[in-house]
Design brief:
The protein has 2 domains: about 170 residues, Rossmann fold (3-Layer(aba) Sandwich), CATH 3.40.50; about 130 residues, Phosphofructokinase domain (Rossmann fold), CATH 3.40.50. The protein is built from 11 helices and 11 strands. Bound molecules: 6-O-phosphono-beta-D-fructofuranose.
Amino acid sequence: MEKKVRRIGVFTSGGDAPGMNAAVRAVARTALHMGIECIGIRRGYHGLINGDFLPLDFNSVSGLSRRGGTMLYSARSKEFMVPEGREKAVATCKLLGIDGLVGIGGDGTFRGLLELSKLGVAVVGVPGTIDNDIACSSYTIGYDTACNTAIDSIDKLRDTMQSHERCSVVEVMGRHAGHLALYVGVACGATAVIVPEQEIDYEHDLIEPIRQARSHEQRTHFMVIVAEGVEGGAYGVAEKIREATALDTRVTILGHVQRGGAPSARDRVTATYMGYEAVKLLVAGKTNRVICLQDDKYVDFDIAEALSMKKSLDIQTYTVMKALTGMEQLKPKA
Ligand code: F6P
């Protein structure tokens, strides 16, 4: 017979993302609606190991959807990486009477959930990361807000670059993935977008188009977007441009500003749906699942299977970007 779920724990882990709070609220409110208690675990796996928690009632999550960051704090726990740490986390779950656990975060968070499920804890993952790099889901909470934040900063930067006839090289987050950089680059009409997934011939794909635009179209300012996972990063790319063109080239690293701010409507609503679906899965007796968005539908995936998948760059968007910027051939990395 299925065990009745009486208490659910929820935590956020890894890099925070706008919309995580909305997901926490959705988990708590859905649980309460179903007559289940909800507790928030603070500081991710670190809090799970140390029993750092707070009860979440209806009012304690009120007004949370519009708030950036995460009210539960986030952390990356070294202790959880070793079996003893994980045993402690399981002991906390038992002590607190947690019948199901919802972890909101990226692939690191899901790896942790998988380990806990092997130790008998019922777990569901909700994808929350600005990187949008979870393969089983077309979307991860925080991506839209991070894109908009980056675009807003780049638009401002463009004004001053134009005034001074400079070349701007902007580094966008994304860890090893270029999804954020590509989307942002298309949205702000960049001169070029450089991502780790695609090979680039700097002379042919970047320097030459800049030279052509300068001599034939009298363009005097340029905006190059670089994903942080690109070898050498924005400084390396800027150096290449400077050496080849003598343009006054400046680097801006957008950094953690992309992780902050009030979540967009898309992030609030997606987070709300995902939090709701996560609780429903646990109540249905499911475990070791991750909530995903596929073809506008919320579905769930086995965590191990989800972790084994690799999200490739959206080649259609990359092709459009290249066509519009003058970067030509597609050369996917081997
Ligand atoms: O995964 C989200 C992310 O913001 C990445 O884009 C970035 O590489 C990383 O986290 C930065 O992590 P931290 O805040 O620990 O430096």
